[in-house]
Amino acid sequence: MSLSFLITSLIVIVSPGTGVLYTLAAALTRGSRMSVAAAFGCTLGIVPHLAAAMLGLAAVLHTSALAFAALKWLGVLYLLYMAWQALRQRGALAVDSRVDARSAAKVVVTGFLINILNPKLSIFFLAFLPQFIAAGEAHPLLVMLELGGVFMAMTFAVFVVYGLFAAKVRERIISRPAAMAWLRRAFAGGFAALGARLALAER
């Protein structure tokens, strides 16, 4: 595994996106344990895209305007729904100190849906991973699986760091209603902006 793959992957992972935003939101509204659950859900959402890239399904998204548009608009609608939930302080982003199994499962599922409904991820893996597989590799799918596994592990680790850092300042923020109101608007605006960016995305 090359150093260039690790460095490139890290740059991609640390760049702000829906997963990072959701993990930060979970940390600030629900605490450190829920930020880990959010990071896990977002990482889990990579699995279908990695499988799609390995099975060639990502190529279908790349060539089929209808398939790409269908998944893209589902993703856009879900991000707008997340923005609405953030504004209304409901759903997985509601301020809540509970860490029971039901709450954690809801946070994980939301993180999973955020990533799985982004068709650009499948196309990203289809274009990104083969660059780091030697032309004469006897088992390219196994190497792709290994690279994907490392990418997922790095994603989870980085998101957890983001979440734990945000959780450290959580108490200072939730005790101030004005700060929380501003934060809800910021997260709502962030999800809406990401939804708009996805809406403008092309294959």
Structural class, by secondary structure, is mainly alpha
Radius of gyration: 17 Å
Strand content: under 5%
Give the low-confidence spans.
none
Q: What profile does the largest beta sheet have?
A: none
Name some characteristics of this structure.
single chain; 203 residues; mainly alpha; 11 helices; globular
How would you describe this protein?
By secondary structure, the protein is an all-alpha fold. It has one domain (17-199). The protein is 80% helix and 0% strand. The chain is built from 11 helices and no strands. Helix 1 packs across helix 9, helix 2 (18-30) packs antiparallel against helix 7 (101-116) and helix 2 (18-30) runs antiparallel to helix 11. The model has no long low-confidence stretch (mean pLDDT 79).
Topology:
Layout: H1 3-14, H2 18-30, H3 32-44, H4 46-55, H5 57-63, H6 65-88, H7 101-116, H8 119-128, H9 140-168, H10 170-174, H11 177-199
Helix pairs in contact: 1-9, 2-3, 2-7, 2-9, 2-11, 3-7, 3-9, 4-8, 4-9, 5-6, 5-8, 6-11
Provide a quick synopsis of the model.
With 203 residues, this protein is mainly α. It is built from eleven helices and no strands.
